[in-house]
Write a structure and sequence with these properties.
The chain has about 180 residues and is an alpha+beta fold. It has a single domain, classed as Immunoglobulin-like (Sandwich), CATH 2.60.40. Helix content is about 20%, strand content about 35%. The chain contains four helices and nine strands, in the order H-E-E-E-E-E-E-E-H-E-E-H-H. Strands 1-2-3-4-7-6-5-8-9 form a nine-stranded antiparallel β-sheet, with helices on one face. A hairpin with a 6-residue loop joins strand 1 and strand 2. The termini are far apart.
Length: about 180
C-alpha cells in the first residue's frame, strides 16, 4: 500500500512555487570581444575575437607570422561527432538571421570545429559582421543533432581590430575596405 501511495505522489504535478521560471523570450545580444597578445619571447602578435553564448563560443583567430591566415573555430559544450574517419571533417550547417542555411565541412577535434579556407572565412566573417543571430547545427558523438544559438551584438569593432593586427591584403579589403 505504501508503494502505491508513493507512486501516486510521484506522478502528481509539482506545486507552482517549485516550478522553474520560463526562459526569456529573446536572449540578450552578446558583444564580441578581442584579445591581442604579444609573445613574451619573440614579440609576435596573436589576436582572437570571441563571441560567447550559453557556455559556447565562436573564435576568429590569426597570428602575425602567418599573415592572412585567419580561422574560424566553434567551441562546444558537447563532444562533436568526428565525421569522416580519414579527414576528421563533419558537416556543420549554419544560418545568419533569416538567410539561407549553409552546410559545409568543418575540421572536428573533440569539442571544437573549425575551418580556415580564405573564401569561406571572408564569407562567414562578412555575414557575422552584419547579423543579429547565428545558429549552428551539427551532431554530437551520440549521433544526436543539436543547435547552438548565438545572439549577436556589435562585432565590427572587434573584427576590425583583429584584422588590423594580423590580417592581410587578401582578406582585409573584402571585409573592412581599404583602411
Amino acid at each position: 500500500m505504501f508503494l502505491i501511495a508513493l507512486a501516486l505522489a510521484a506522478t502528481q504535478a509539482e506545486p507552482a512555487s517549485r516550478a522553474e521560471p520560463s526562459p526569456p523570450a529573446e536572449a540578450a545580444q552578446q558583444l564580441m570581444t578581442v584579445e591581442i597578445v604579444r609573445d613574451a619571447i619573440n614579440d609576435r602578435l596573436r589576436a582572437t575575437a570571441i563571441l560567447r553564448a550559453n557556455g559556447e563560443r565562436i573564435e576568429i583567430r590569426c597570428r602575425e607570422p602567418d599573415w592572412g591566415d585567419v580561422s574560424v573555430e566553434y567551441h562546444s559544450r558537447r563532444w562533436i561527432a568526428r565525421g569522416n574517419f580519414f579527414s576528421g571533417m563533419q558537416p556543420v550547417t549554419y544560418r545568419f538571421d533569416d538567410h539561407a542555411p549553409i552546410r559545409r565541412l568543418w575540421h572536428v577535434r573533440d569539442r571544437t570545429a573549425s575551418f580556415d579556407d580564405r573564401g569561406r572565412v571572408i564569407a562567414f566573417v562578412g555575414a557575422l559582421m552584419g547579423a543579429r543571430q547565428l545558429v549552428l547545427r551539427t551532431r554530437d558523438i551520440e549521433n544526436r543533432t543539436f543547435d547552438a544559438i548565438f545572439p549577436i551584438g556589435e562585432t565590427r569593432g572587434a573584427i576590425v581590430d583583429l584584422l588590423h593586427t594580423c590580417g592581410s591584403r587578401r582578406i582585409n579589403p573584402p571585409l573592412i575596405g581599404k583602411q
